[in-house]
Amino acid sequence: MERTELADFLRRRREALTPEDVGLPTGPRRRTLGLRREEVAALSGMSTDTYLRLEQQRGSRPSEQMLAALARGLRLTLDERDHLFRMAGHTAPARVIRSGHVSPALMRVLDRLHDTPAMVISELNETLVQNPMAVALLGEQTHFTGLAGVAVYRWFTDPAERLKYPERDHGYQSRLQVAQMRAAIGRAGSPPIGGRVAEALLKSSSEFAEIWARHEVSVKAAQHKTLVHPELGEIELDCQLLINENDAQMLLIFTAIPGSVDAEKLDLLSVIGTQRLTVGEHETDPGRR
Questions:
Q1: CA–CA gap between residue 222 and residue 235 (Å, rounded)
Q2: Which DSSP string corresponds to the chain?
Q3: Is the dihedral angle over the CA atoms 85, 91, 93, 96 positive or is it negative?
Q4: CA 67 – CA 3 distance, rounded (Å)
Q5: pLDDT in tens, 226-269
Q6: Cα gap 11→37, rounded to integer Å
Q7: What is the tens place of the pLDDT at every residue in 147-174?
């Protein structure tokens, strides 16, 4: 581990970013060159003290998971990410066409979306990063590991996953998710986890096996869907996709028709975040007026 080089690299990358680059307000009397250490820590999902130790050449060697988080937080390119891994004494992740490293271009757009849910997903529908509004709408989805990181696996194995959609839409969602996964698996360079998910579900879910046998294929496209929020009830949303240059990652943006009840629910969602409403607060639900 090259502590001095690592510390210098982190500091210089931090100083090269502006608050606007990551969707943060500049604020008055800002004296720090680039981002503050606590801002980088927050963007990377770690404590300020943990990040500070790295810049001060203290502490233990960061894990690969921590380095990947730092690469996202500092908006590193793939070359910069690989350099970061090597300085920390780790082998850089394999350079394949498709990668879990979030495209900086998509991150720049996501950083500027504060008033509507948005998230970056892989072609296999793995959630790579969410903004706070997306967490409030769908719950935290970036912590899943292994096969559970793929949404279609959770759909057929975890009953809680289906609570996000009205029961009337479950059949359609089952077919759509399977068709999209089959299309993703069929592309050149697709991650092997897709095949492992299919094999596991063929053994464990008769519903999946029946749909898989239809050999339906569908690529991801803009959709109109109804989601179910535990506090606000059903919300009808349009889902728009911004796809990166190699079709491996997509920025998914949820919007509602301006002036509609659903738009009011999104406004309320931005206020309550992930907190639970009390019985009295339910009276402010625009869908119950």
A1: 17
A2: --HHHHHHHHHHHHHH--GGGGT----TT--SSSS-HHHHHHHHTS-HHHHHHHHTT-SSPPPHHHHHHHHHHTT--HHHHHHHHHHTT-PPPP--SS-SSPPHHHHHHHHT--SS-EEEEETT-BEEEE-HHHHHHH---S---GGGGBHHHHHHH-GGGGGGS-GGGHHHHHHHHHHHHHHHHHSTT--THHHHHHHHHHHH-HHHHHHHTTT-------EEEEEEETTTEEEEEEEEEEE-TTSSEEEEEEE--TTSHHHHHHHHHHHHTTPPPPTTGGGG-GGG-
A3: positive
A4: 14
A5: 999 988 999 999 999 888 765 678 899 999 999 999 999 999 98
A6: 9
A7: 999 999 999 999 999 999 999 999 999 9
Report the length, in residues, of the chain: 289
Q: Convert 234-243 to b/e letters by CB count within 10 Å (16 or more is b).
A: ebebebbebe
| Domain-wise residue ranges, the chain | 3-87, 104-288
Which residues have a Cβ under 8 Å from the Cβ of 278 and sit 6 or more positions away? none
Q: Which of 4, 249, 235 is nearest to 102 (CA)?
A: 249
Kindly report the CATH number that applies to the domain delimited by 104-288: 3.30.450.180
Domain 3-87 in this protein, CATH class = mainly alpha
Rounded to two decimals, what is the model's pTM?
0.65
The angle at the Cα of 100, spanning 98 to 104, to the nearest 5 degrees, equals 90
> Span 134-141, mean pLDDT?
92
Return the amino acid letter for 201.
L
